[in-house]
Amino acid sequence: DWAAALRWLELLPVAERDSPRWRYWRGRTLELLGRADEARQAYQAVAGQRDFYGFLAADRLGQPYAIANLPLPAPASELEALLAQSPALKRARELYLLGRAPEAEAEWRRSVQTLDRPALQRAAVLASRWGWHAQAIGALARAEAWDDLDIRFPLAYRDSVVDSARASGLDAAWVYAIIRQESAFRPDARSPVGALGLMQLMPDTARDIARQSADASDGNPEALLEAETNIRLGARYLRHVAGRLQDNPLLATAAYNAGPSKVTQWLPERDPIAADLWAETIPYQETRGYVQRVLEYAVIYGRRLGASPELPLASRMKPVLPAPSPTVAKPGSDAG
Fold first, then answer.
1. Region at 22 (left for phi over 0; alpha for psi -120 to 50; beta for the rest)
2. Which CATH entry fits the domain spanning 76-152: 3.40.1160.10, 3.40.50.1220, 1.10.1240.20, 3.40.50.300?
3. What confidence tens digit (pLDDT) does each residue in 61-118 have?
4. How far apart are CA 21 and CA 79, in angstroms?
5. 33 burial class (0-12, 13-18, 19+ CB within 10 angstroms)?
6. Which of 10, 144, 182, 228 is catalytic?
7. Catalytic status, residue 286
């Protein structure tokens, strides 16, 4: 009942009604009610946002995305002054270059605790130039500086990402978006549940994928901490998951977080569901947010990679089809 949904939307608090999510779904509801002019106005109010709902709205309007990239000014004199004033930051850099990651990260945390916003931004620039992308991304987040996309969405390991994506028949921007969300480009990332590396592969999963593809690494856990191996196996796993789930990037992205079996349980029983509605009603809040961030990041990475033509978000959000009916063996058949 979309009329009831619209009435409910209008009753939400003012703070909620200012959100891109509210504005998009008001437009979508108006569109479904046949109120096209009002829907376009609602979409227009959010289409300039550089986020999931802004990109969805731009697609509904057939407009290009608003993806402003404003690199931070970083005069060499200011960067040098920051290093001179922060011995801990200098130690962090030296330890990082020596490959002593835990000690380097401890020094980094110590060094940035007392920095103000401008200094945090300069620290992010330094870390980015050192190739220490997780720290750069984190520093910009602390500084609430969101518009330097070169730092926030680095093109690290570009050859490996592009080659592995191509070999697995995937979009490189999507693979980059998974890496950005899973590890923020920490090749040595280890999760509490045992996932490893850039694409946070579980060792058993990686071993299965490696053996199915006769990969020389054999899915060895230590090899998963090597960027090239992790990206190669991660792309193959993403391809495998997509193949199980209607070749739908939306479903495969959800499965990368929650698991393919869980996503299969969330498929509609009878009629297809529009992708945006399915994404909005994912039962797990963590997975719902994960899907929105990855698909948003994939659009941004498409722009960063200079994709031509640019792949729209809509191309990654196919309608979600019902789960296939279980096959029942006929009497006298060979099944069973």
1. alpha
2. 1.10.1240.20
3. 999 999 999 999 999 999 999 999 999 999 999 999 999 999 999 999 999 999 999 9
4. 38
5. middle
6. 182
7. no
